[in-house]
Write a structure and sequence with these properties.
mainly alpha, 2 domains, single chain, about 220 residues, Four Helix Bundle (Hemerythrin (Met), subunit A), about 80% helix
Amino acid sequence: MRHAEDFLVDEHLRELESRLQGPARLKSDLLTEARHDLLDAVDAYRESGLPPAEAQRRAVAEFGSPAQVLPSWQAELAVAALRGLSLRMLAVAGVLVAAGDLTWRGSSWSVGPQPPAAYRLLSATVDWIWAGGLLLAVTGLLVIWAGARSSRPHLAVAQRAVGVGLTGTLALGMAAGGALFVWSVDLWDAALTWPPMIVGMVVVGAAYFSLTRAARGWVRGTAR
């Protein structure tokens, strides 16, 4: 039976919630499970004859303070955030590597004079950046898989390194890709009215937004 006066439990859970950073679904699951455990403990103490306030106090003390509970929870949330970032990078980088040049095929300028060497170098650099992101994403998933089966400290360090690498790759990819787009429009005015280019802009913009949110979640999750 739940009681409206379970204010100590609610206060404890609010404090835990305010200090946790990570994927919303997993965070909600952790807090829901904690609520159930705490209220079950409160009920057990009440049934043993303790007053409501004392039952809550003991249940909260037995559950653990934020300093005792949060490190393991936050580590779990950070791993989940890295998994999400790796999966999104895997999808986005895979598409960009496999289909990055489709926006140009059949365009009126694709059979014209070759663009400057610096432009071609930038275009190749963008491809290499996303290829590196693809490799890092696979590495991240493998490191997470290994970390779930071993508590060796170097795996946690590797997970953080992969997260930093993925975040850096995203920043570089966005900067280089944006520069390539601006340069393309400057070289070929028709690029802005080329349908595959327009579709590509929308898709890539949505992909950048999704990756940025995932990277921000990972950064916040590991900063705690």
